[in-house]
């Protein structure tokens, strides 16, 4: 027995044979030692007496026990040292041909069979071939394992355990490491996350990158020694070696200060050059400058974390759910006050929004943008969904290619790093692809996640794209108190940014950062492009008429979906998904708005976030929305259930006008809302105080603006006009329509009666039934006064045309019957081509209705008027309120005719129609503020405090 080589290499110790550590295994690097000698020295195997594997190129020894493998890999099981693999190392010049490769494979298989192991390896140091020795012996030919990575402890472990294709979920690993980091450093959740991601990246890269890119001395396995042995070999601790040697090497491979080489990205923001200033790591809680503890003192904890990673196994095939929820695990650790929550959107919400966006249908070279990208969920998760963008990122000739351009913008450096690491994780299959280089991967990261922090206050807002984005998916930050700093910063930006003067571009009058982002979004979309934006409830029911007006000038609202409170980890603020579509032409019609009430999102809304896939209203709403887009939306004149779903309605676009609230609850009746089983919420006291404070401060700002506006508008000259003035007004009662009439003659004409809600109808009646009784639906809009009803008397509403009122409603129109008749006569004469004086007064109504082209009239078609109908409703409401009319003093036509209204006049005494309209709009916004106050009070009373 010759053991000279074993002794010379230090493998034989007083305690027996011990190889070099190779992860969880041991390695004997040999070449001259026979199989029989290894068995005699204590390896736990019996040399084979003979081998039946037929060789074609290699001439095996007569006795298998005389085989001399170049390397043997061992696993220590208790006190036993068991061989699991052998390797044959060949000079590169001897593996150039197929014949030479065949000979080397046969030699390795014979050596493996001689030792009774199942794994044989051949390599020239740069290429590795993994052979299934047992299957090769059975089949009589060389059989390879499906493995392409360079040899590492992780690869060997996967081959030995038969887990090369196993999909792993590192959730338990993340939980364990989180606890270890936090207990050692007491760092914030964000710093714990950055630290975990940094170590995760090292293990991930070590398990997937070739040795030529990340040599053995810089890999995860290089740290897996006993601390004393490591210090003896390297002269330093593991954590110091990592910080001073391995960490810089990783940053060298994924270098910072990389120029974005995609011209389309630069053009998007109007920048000649964009530089990526970040790598994939730069957050290590053990390096906190404020700590008085040295880095080396954390070595025990660092080694404990390394052991946890090593025990977990290979990071090759990673469960997509883990990719989706990695950041979610750390966010749960924050007590809602941490900044981590500012760049995180729950995965279930992202999934539904991605489905709604229908990214798979986008043509080549489309652009998908997230201007507040955070960790990149909206851009990366579509890569994992079969119906979104799988395979969107490819590498061709060493360069990254994207069929659909994905671009995310961030202002925070750490968050940009996390997004890049997240992208690398999502591209794990490509990382180990031999056709993908680290340089190309790094370029793909740089081209996708853009750091725009030249102005750290404005971030993405400083460089707004213009008419160039197909889809926007985003959750922008929302801040109202203190948000004035953004507008002040915009005021001080000089020069053009992508062709725009920012102070003019963002002059939309909205409160909060989210209103600036909405302006950014509406300008960025190309005609027909869509944006899916998470916004706070306050933005939708705020009376920001200028912001809404300018947004509507560029976009249609196509969906407004309420998310459940506490849908987000870090805030109890009610939130919505608002969907916008860029208008193709100025006069494009507006479709009905898809409205939804999501009570559930597929998981519990507490700290645990337990999956509840059977309770996911948001997923259902996403499916319904896709159906809504694929079919021509029906015309609706009032909120109507969509596809018979109680949580989805189509609402007329007029309900989402500039002076309307854009939330959706008001489109469900109280009875419907109760039937949905919406439970009383439980809110933590701190959250309740914060939300109440924010809401009240917001309302105070709006009330102040409304007061100043109304004081300014009503400060001018006014004149008093009596409604009995037949030259100006037409007053009449509605018609008698009974409940039985509605039941027996259903139709499409809405019938209004004495109700306190404007959108409540008594029913819809047949046009034929009305015509048979000589009743015509209202040709023009009007103002109505509830004549009776204990709670409704004196209530005033504006009504559109093509409806009828019951006889307990008084109709007021600001033009006289003679004026209306004169206008109708002119229309009939024009239609018939005859002189107007040939039309008989008594026949004008019938003639007007008979002739084609004279139906479907709107307010704009009505006889010229000097009193705006919306203003008349406001002024009449004020007069009735000041008069103290009660149920006993019913307001029928005679009493209404005795009322007067104050109307603004210009300097020459003519009625000021423009000021009327402004007062009406201001009053409408005040009504919206009152509604919000009322709703806040109801919520405050009903909510349960935890």
UniProtKB/TrEMBL annotation:
Q: Which GO terms describe its molecular function?
A: DNA binding; N-methyltransferase activity; site-specific DNA-methyltransferase (adenine-specific) activity
Catalyzed reactions per annotation: a 2'-deoxyadenosine in DNA + S-adenosyl-L-methionine = an N(6)-methyl-2'-deoxyadenosine in DNA + S-adenosyl-L-homocysteine + H(+)
Which PANTHER family does the entry link to? SLR6095 PROTEIN, TYPE I RESTRICTION ENZYME ECOKI METHYLASE SUBUNIT
The protein's superkingdom reads Bacteria
- Does this entry carry the keyword Transferase? yes
Could you tell me the EC number(s) of this protein?
A: 2.1.1.72
According to the record, the segments passing through the membrane are: none
Q: What class of enzyme is it?
A: transferase
Keyword terms: Coiled coil, Methyltransferase, Restriction system, S-adenosyl-L-methionine, Transferase
The name this protein goes by in its record: site-specific DNA-methyltransferase (adenine-specific)
Positions the record marks as coiled coil are 689-716
Q: Where would I find the DNA methylase adenine-specific domain in this sequence? A: 326-586
* GO BP of this protein: DNA restriction-modification system; methylation
The record, for SUPFAM superfamilies, names: S-adenosyl-L-methionine-dependent methyltransferases
Q: Which organism is it from?
A: Micromonospora sediminicola
């Amino acid at each position: 027995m010759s053991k000279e080589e074993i002794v010379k290499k230090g493998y034989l110790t007083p305690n027996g044979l011990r190889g070099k550590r190779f992860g969880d295994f041991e390695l004997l690097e040999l070449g001259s030692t026979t199989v029989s000698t290894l068995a005699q020295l204590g390896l736990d195997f019996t040399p084979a007496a003979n081998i039946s594997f037929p060789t074609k190129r290699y001439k095996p020894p007569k006795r298998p026990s005389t085989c001399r493998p170049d390397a043997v890999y061992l696993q220590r099981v208790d006190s036993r040292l068991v061989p699991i693999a052998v390797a044959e190392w060949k000079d590169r010049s001897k593996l150039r041909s197929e014949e030479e490769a065949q000979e080397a494979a046969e030699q390795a298989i014979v050596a493996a069979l001689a030792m009774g192991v199942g794994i044989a390896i051949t390599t020239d140091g740069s290429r590795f071939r993994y052979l299934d020795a047992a299957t090769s012996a059975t089949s009589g030919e060389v059989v390879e394992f499906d493995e392409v990575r360079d040899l590492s402890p992780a690869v060997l472990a996967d081959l030995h355990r038969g887990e090369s294709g196993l999909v792993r979920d590192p959730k338990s690993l993340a939980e364990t490491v989180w606890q270890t980091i936090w207990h050692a450093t007491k760092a914030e959740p964000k710093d714990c996350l950055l630290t975990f991601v940094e170590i995760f990246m090292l293990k991930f890269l070590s398990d997937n990158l070739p040795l030529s890119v990340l040599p053995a001395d810089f890999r995860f396995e290089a740290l897996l020694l006993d601390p004393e042995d490591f210090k003896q070999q390297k002269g330093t601790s593991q954590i110091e070696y990592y910080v001073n040697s391995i960490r810089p090497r990783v940053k060298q491979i994924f270098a910072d200060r990389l120029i974005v080489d995609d011209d389309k990205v630069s053009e998007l923001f109007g920048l000649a050059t964009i530089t990526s200033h970040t790598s994939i790591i730069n957050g290590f809680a053990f390096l906190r400058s404020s700590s008085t503890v040295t880095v080396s003192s954390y070595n025990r904890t660092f080694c404990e974390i390394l052991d946890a990673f090593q025990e977990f196994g290979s990071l090759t095939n990673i469960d997509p759910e883990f990719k989706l929820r990695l950041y979610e695990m750390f966010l749960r650790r924050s007590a809602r006050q941490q900044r981590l929550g500012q760049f995180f959107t729950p995965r279930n919400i992202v999934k539904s929004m991605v489905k709604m966006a229908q990214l798979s249908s986008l043509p080549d070279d489309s652009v998908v943008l997230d201007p507040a990208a955070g960790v990149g969920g909206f851009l990366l998760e579509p890569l994992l969904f079969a119906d979104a963008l799988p395979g969107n990122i490819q590498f061709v000739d060493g360069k990254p290619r994207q069929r659909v351009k994905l671009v995310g913008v961030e202002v925070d450096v750490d968050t940009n790093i996390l997004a890049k690491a997240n992208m690398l994780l999502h591209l794990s299959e490509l990382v180990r692809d031999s056709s993908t280089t680290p340089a190309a991967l790094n370029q793909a990261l740089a081209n996708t996640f853009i750091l725009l922090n030249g102005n750290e206050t404005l971030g993405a807002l400083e460089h707004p794209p213009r008419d160039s984005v197909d889809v926007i998916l985003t959750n922008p930050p929302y801040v109202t108190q203190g948000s004035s700093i953004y507008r002040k910063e915009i005021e001080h930006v000089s020069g053009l940014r992508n062709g725009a003067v920012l102070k003019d571009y963002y002059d939309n009058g909205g409160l909060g950062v989210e209103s600036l982002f909405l302006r950014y979004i509406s300008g960025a979309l190309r005609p027909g492009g869509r944006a899916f934006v998470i916004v706070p409830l306050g933005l939708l029911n705020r009376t920001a008429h200028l912001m809404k007006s300018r947004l509507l000038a560029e976009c249609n609202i196509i969906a407004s979906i309420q998310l459940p409170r506490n849908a987000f980890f870090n805030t109890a603020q009610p939130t919505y998904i608002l969907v916008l579509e860029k208008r193709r032409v100025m006069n494009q019609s507006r479709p009905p708005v898809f409205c939804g009430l999501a009570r559930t999102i597929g998981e519990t809304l507490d700290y645990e976030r337990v999956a509840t896939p059977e309770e996911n209203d948001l997923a259902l709403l996403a499916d319904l929305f896709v159906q809504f887009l694929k079919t021509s939306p029906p015309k609706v004149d009032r909120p109507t259930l969509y596809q018979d779903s109680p949580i989805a309605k189509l609402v007329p676009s007029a309900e989402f006008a500039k002076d309307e609230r854009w939330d959706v609850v008001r489109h469900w009746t109280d009875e419907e809302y109760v039937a949905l089983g919406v439970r009383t919420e439980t809110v933590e006291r701190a959250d309740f105080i914060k939300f109440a404070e924010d809401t009240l401060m917001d309302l105070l700002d709006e009330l102040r603006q409304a007061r100043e506006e109304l004081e300014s508008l009503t400060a001018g000259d006014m004149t008093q006009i009596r409604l009995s003035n037949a030259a100006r007004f037409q007053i009449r009662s509605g018609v008698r329509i009974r409940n039985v009439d509605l039941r027996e003659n259903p139709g499409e004409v809405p019938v209004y009666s004495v109700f306190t809600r404007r959108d409540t109808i008594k029913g819809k009646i047949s046009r034929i039934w009305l015509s048979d009784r000589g009743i015509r639906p209202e040709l023009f809009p009007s103002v109505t006064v509830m004549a009776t009803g204990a709670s409704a008397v004196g209530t005033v509403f504006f009504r559109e045309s093509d409806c009828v009122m019951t006889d307990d409603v008084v109709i007021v129109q600001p033009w006289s019957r003679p004026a209306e008749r004169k206008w109708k006569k002119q229309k009939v004469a024009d239609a018939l081509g005859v002189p107007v004086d040939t039309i008989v007064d008594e026949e004008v109504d019938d003639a007007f209705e008979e002739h084609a082209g004279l139906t479907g009239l709107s307010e704009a078609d009505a006889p010229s008027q000097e009193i705006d109908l919306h203003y008349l409703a406001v002024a009449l409401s004020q007069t009735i309120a000041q008069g103290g009319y009660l149920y006993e003093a019913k307001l029928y036509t005679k009493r209404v005719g005795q009322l007067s209204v104050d109307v603004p006049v210009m300097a020459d005494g003519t009625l000021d129609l423009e000021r009327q309209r402004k007062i009406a709009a201001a009053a409408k916004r005040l009504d919206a503020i009152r509604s919000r106050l009322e709703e806040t009070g109801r919520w405050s009373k009903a909510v349960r405090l935890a």
